[in-house]
Amino acid sequence: MALFADLHRHLGGAVVPRILWRFLQRSQSEIIDRFAHYGDFEQFYTAPKASLAEYLEIHKLVESTQTTGTLPYFIQRLVRGAYTFENLAYLELRYTPYLRTPATLSQTERLDLMPAVVQCVAAASQVPGYPLLMPQILCLHTHLPYEVNRAMVQLAADCVPTVCAIDVAGGDRAYAERLPEFIELFNWARELGLKTTGHLFETRDGCYPDLLPYLMRIGHGIQIPLHYPELLPELAARGQCLEVCPTTYIQTGTLTEIAALRTVFDRCFEAGVDIVICTDNAGLHNVRLPAEYEALLTADVIDFQQLQACQTASFRHAFAWPHAQPPSQVLQDWLRQPSAPAIA
Question: Might you give the EC number(s) for this enzyme (predicted)?
Answer without folding.
Answer: 3.5.4.4
